[in-house]
Design goal:
This protein is α+β, with helices and mostly antiparallel strands. Helices cover about 40% and strands about 20% of the residues. Strand 4 and strand 5 form a beta hairpin. Helix 3 crosses helix 5.
Length: about 160
């Protein structure tokens, strides 16, 4: 069984929270500055979200379009998050992109502005601009429009792929 969990960044200072999971097997834990509410997705076929304010009830969602939307949202947050378990530094992919650079590149290709990209958890506008500048330098682009085109043509987003 593969389990991936996202926690608020502050959990890094409370390792006992992670150890309480008591799970064995393929477990990955990452943290993010801002995490939306609880979400459980099982095999991309069913999702559970809180159904009341205190989190004691869950709504079961089986609509394929909604489950896919929630799973895709989780994947975006996952790519921006910093690994906690297993302990390892974020690795650059085959083209030298870190997970955050990759996320910024994906959003840039979607046509997002710097502030639109920076709205994603874990990035501020300055960091976003630094990632974009590194991408532009690496691909030899002098304009934002050309950079988006070069990212698409280079295949770096497809080749690094998603690991679900």
């Amino acid at each position: 069984m593969r389990v991936r969990t996202l926690y608020q960044e502050t959990v890094r200072h409370f390792p006992s929270v992670i150890s309480r999971q008591g799970m064995r097997g393929d477990l990955e834990v990452r943290s993010l500055n801002e995490v939306p509410g609880r979400l459980i997705v099982i095999d991309r076929s069913v999702a559970f979200i809180p159904a009341d304010e205190d989190g004691s009830l869950a709504a079961e969602i089986r609509n394929p379009a909604i489950v896919d939307y929630l799973a895709t949202a989780f994947e975006r947050f996952w790519r921006l998050a910093e690994p906690m378990l297993p302990k390892r530094a974020p690795q650059a992919g085959p083209h030298g992109l870190t997970p955050r650079q990759r996320a910024a590149a994906e959003l840039l290709v979607e046509g997002r502005t710097d502030s639109g990209i920076a709205e994603r958890p874990g990035l501020d506008v300055r960091t976003c601009r630094a990632h974009i500048a590194k991408l532009a330098a690496a691909l030899g682009s002098r304009s934002r429009a050309r950079l988006g085109c070069l990212i698409g043509q280079s295949g770096i987003l497809e080749q690094e792929g998603h690991h679900t």
